[in-house]
Amino acid sequence: SQQGEEDPQALSIQEGENATMNCSYKTSINNLQWYRQNSGRGLVHLILIRSNEREKHSGRLRVTLDTSKKSSSLLITASRAADTASYFCATVLIQGAQKLVFGQGTRLTINP
Amino acid sequence: EAGVVQSPRYKIIEKKQPVAFWCNPISGHNTLYWYLQNLGQGPELLIRYENEEAVDDSQLPKDRFSAERLKGVDSTLKIQPAELGDSAVYLCASSLRGGPDTQYFGPGTRLTVL
Predict the structure, then answer these.
(1) Fewer C-beta neighbours within 10 Å, C or N terminus of chain B?
(2) What is the CA radius of gyration of chain A?
(3) A44, A45, A105 member nearest B42 (Cβ)
(4) Distance between CA atoms of A30 and A22, rounded to whole angstroms?
(5) Alpha helices, DSSP H only, in B1-114?
(6) Maximum distance among all alpha carbons in chain A?
(7) Distance (Å, whole) CA A29 – CA A7
(8) pLDDT tens digits, residue range A68-112?
């Protein structure tokens, strides 16, 4: 079963606009990771945020984590056509097997 | 540094036939994962290896799926016999260590069962 749920399932915006994707999860986590997947490719790690962190930046990416609400968001600023991809959040639970549990992903389309 | 290598990239087979996928992880990565990804879904873990030991295979359908990681490096995932519902992308990933470490994914093998 998948622990994370992304919202929205699909997002289409104009190039240059900001894109925000949300992820909710159910049980306590060690960390939360965001991955990108271009069509027909494997997943690429974007950013990892630990349970004791609230915000993290990497280039045009900004990730927030609210453990009280069990949610995270990924913000891509000044979007580019090359950002078109599916974005997945994945959680590593505190208890049980230390493995990544992926959500269903958000399909992001950047229109030129 | 070379990434995770998988082959073949695409495979089309008739149902009830066997099929095998191969994965070469990043050099020095002790942990290797096999995932199944259905269309429009996130990857789901099938099996995780720490060196040559399978430490989590709870999601592997053992009646038809098998995996091995000889010498703790390359790994092979096999399906015998394949069923229509096995059509999916099979992803291999590796990490330096297990647990919460970042995982590095290969491009995947897209399997179509006719």
Answers:
(1) N
(2) 13
(3) A105
(4) 18
(5) none
(6) 44
(7) 19
(8) 999 999 999 999 999 999 999 999 887 666 778 899 999 999 999
Beta carbons within 10 angstroms of residue A54's beta carbon: 11
Whose CA is closest to B28, among B108, B104, B90, B100? B104
| Dist CA A57 CA A61 (whole Å) | 6
Give chain A positions within 8 Å (CB) of B109: none
Which region, left, alpha or beta, applies to residue B42 given φ > 0 means left and ψ of -120 to 50 means alpha?
Answer: beta
Q: Which of B4, B13, B10 is nearest to B34 (CA)?
A: B4
What does the alpha-carbon distance between residue A19 and residue A110 come to, in Å, rounded to a whole number?
Answer: 9
Please name the member of B40, B42, B107 whose beta carbon is closest to the beta carbon of A2: B42
Collapse the DSSP code of A11 into the 3-class scheme (helix H, G, I; strand E, B; otherwise coil) and give the result: strand
Task: Look at the block and give the residue holding tokens 């622990």.
Answer: A3
Q: What is the pLDDT of residues B11-59, one digit of tens each?
A: 999 999 999 999 999 999 999 999 999 998 999 999 999 999 998 888 8
Nearest residue to B80 (alpha-carbon basis) of B21, B5, B8, B6 = B21
